[in-house]
Structure formats: C-alpha cells, structure tokens
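Below is our example:
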Amino acid sequence: MKIVKIESSDYKDIQRIYNYYVEETLFTFSDALMEDSEAIQLTNEGIQYAGCVALRDEIVIGFGIAYPFRVESIFNKTVKLTYFLNPAYLSKGIGTKILNHLFVELKEKGFKEIIVNISSLNKPSIEFHKKMGFVECGFFSKHWHN
C-alpha cells in the first residue's frame, strides 16, 4: 500500500468510494450520489490545496482531499478535509497515513487550521479524529436524513 499525490484521473475512483458511503451509510451528509462534475471539482481542489490517494496494487482504495473552508479572507489559512476508504480497508492504519500525508502537505503550504465534519452516527471516525488530535467544536442538532 502506498500514498501518492492525487491526479485528475483519480476522480472516478473518488466518486466510486464516496458514493458507496452515500448509498450505504449516513456518514456523508448527502442523500444524492456524487456526479462526475462534483467528483472532478473535488479532485481539482485536492490538486490545488492538498490531496492524495491510497493505492493497493495500483488500485485506489482511499482518498483524502483538502478544500477551502470559507471564502472570507480571515479563513484563507483554514481548510476542510474529506476522506474515505474502501470499507474493506477500514481499521488498517490507512486513514492515519492519509491524514498524516495531508498534514505534511498542508503545513508546507502554510495552512494553520484543519476542520472535518463527522456524522454523530460515525462513532469510529469520531474516535479516530480524537486520537489524531482533533477537538470537537460544535454539534448540529435537529438535522437528519429523511
């Protein structure tokens, strides 16, 4: 398994992995499958800000992408992250490697604040992020999928 910089050709794999979570979980905050145009835009943001894919036998098994948190200039050193793994590769240390790769790339580019949104239903992700040094800073109440 190796972690490499994201490339524009990775968008279909990113879309495939993400859409699994849309269809099978409530972890994405989306009830619509990611379209090609959205996957291309997300991949391009990963190329511009920070992004990587995890490869096993040259097949993408996970990804991590940083993108702008907000447009106001006060947040120009703040990014949000999204990353997902093929479910067969959860709890194998790959998420840690992806996140560490993104940390290095973001630090080199001068980013200071990193934010992630996590579904309260995704307890393993919440625990993972606490272990990685993230601190809970907010909770949306009265939001759910119908």
